[in-house]
Amino acid sequence: IDSENMSVWKITIAGPSVSPYKGGLFVLQLDFPDQYPFKQPMMKFVTKVYHPSVMQTTGEICHNIITWAPTLTALTCIEGVYSLLADPQADLPVDDDIAQLLSTNRKEFERKARKFTKEHAM
To answer: What count of Cα atoms within 13 Å lies in the side-chain half-sphere of residue 119?
Structure first.
């Protein structure tokens, strides 16, 4: 947490051990809007990650991964992102090329995701 801006959090997430992100440490940023908890935090990866639900240029994560309600918490967001890493799916893409690769050649997708993890998330 930035002591000058308590509405911005940076969290480190370890890549799930049964995923192509195994061994990587990923920095996730949560930006809490003034309307929180009525509006969900914006989430993005600071660390580059090869995933169909993550915008390669900005690190932004598909906002539809969580159906937000004011009773949910920041932990819900973090768990949602962890689930994305644990089980990549092509059904909520922000990067169509990566989603297409995941759908048609999972082995090649996983190879590229492991390579990205080794290059950016260690």
So the answer is: 9
User: Is 62 one of the annotated active-site residues of the chain?
Assistant: yes
Give me the count of residues in the chain: 122
Helix (H) or strand (E) holding 109: helix 106-120
Which residue among 13, 28, 62, 85 is the active-site one? Answer: 62
Is the previous residue joined to 37 through a cis bond, with omega within 30 degrees of 0?
A: yes
Encoded tokens for 78: 């973090």
Q: Which amino acid is at 22?
A: K
pTM of the model: 0.91
CB-based contact 46:9 (threshold 8 Å): no
Instruction: Note the pLDDT tens digit of each residue in 26-46.
Output: 999 999 999 999 999 999 999
Report how far residue 18's alpha carbon sits from residue 88's, in angstroms, rounded to the nearest whole number. 11
